[in-house]
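Troubleshooting log. The previous structure file for this entry was overwritten by mistake, so regenerating from the original sequence record. Sequence copied from the archived sheet and checked twice against the printout by T.R.
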Amino acid sequence: MPALRQIRIRLLTAGQWCAVLSLFAAPINKPATASFIILSLFLSLLGADTRSRWQAALREPVVIGFLVWFAVLLASATHTALLQDSSAYRESSLWSCIYPALMASLLRDSHWRWRALLAFATAAGLVVVISYLMQFGLVPQRAVVEVTASMRNTVFKEYTQQGLASLILMSMLLAVALKSPSRRLRASLLIIAAVVLFNVVLVIQSRTTYIVLLPLLAYWIYYLVAHRIKGWRTLVVSAMLAIASICALWSTPSIRERMVSAVTEEVDDYLTTQKPTSSGIRLWLWQHTLPIIADAPLFGHGLNRWEPIYMEQMASIPDSAPFITGHPHQEMLLILAEEGAAGLLVFTVLLLGLAYHASKLGDPQRGILTSIVIIYFAAGLANGLWSDFTHRHVFILLVACIPAGAFPWYGNGRTQQSNP
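Regenerated output below.
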């Protein structure tokens, strides 16, 4: 084998490990995540079989879907540029849509993609362990706890980011456990999944994760019932178990306090005194986003235009400083404001397409990808995920790395990739 090709094969292998490490870094550190992605890109371009790898990557359904959304955001950025603001072209949320193609060009078979998922699970698992150690006083709390009490028991990220990553880890453990032929391994994974769930419910106590937890548990209950009961009884038994589970969760003091008492008090304070509580800020943002949407309902105002328009609104409203944020804390409202009804239609079709793609996968991939879609859709109802680096990268990288079985270049159990 020529020496140059041997070098390029080794560069490709290095790029594959950088892609895996980007999944490990995603729930932990933003600069490390970006660094590994950049290294992955350079090594993918320098590695062996560059053209064939990228051509094959561009045929994957998930890659095609993200490229369609990239085209929508690029058109939206051009809309913004026509308003004398070309900074939208540098927006990371735009170029993040290229990551699935990059991952597909490197992680060329199921073995590499499972390594990437395992890297994410390892990092998220370490975070859960450290979080418990913080709870029991064996590891000191972060200094930010003195300013923001809700950050208690958070390790590297804020409580919503850590909570959603933990729910993804729980879903991965459930999906693999229920497919495992080993009874001992299945029991072990289910116990670990329960430990992760307790961390989310009792230790982190993020309200966004509580919102996500309801549809996520409903899905897994249906998943379990559908594998044992067929026909109309599936829905009946699933509904009964889901109601029982929700009632059990609702009886948990932390959930009842955070989701009922605190929200009711916050809304009352906002309605009576305009106090900028967590719930009050969201109500304010949604209320003032509606006029922005009404001004450009079809195609929106352009990428990154919500914030300057909102800031212009706030400049004429006294005492609005506590309500200043970078996004409206609702994914659909942000898309409507910046890409309009046309953009939201494309986004909805792509989301449904992703769910359909998940339904065609085998287990445990189907359970993992469906859970990720549920988590990010439900969380986006009361939060801004695409605007946040960690949420966006965790979602994109995980979706891009779900093994889809036999790829166009992967057949008969062997990869066509050259190995050193």
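The chain is about 70% helix and 0% strand. Archived copy saved in two places this time.
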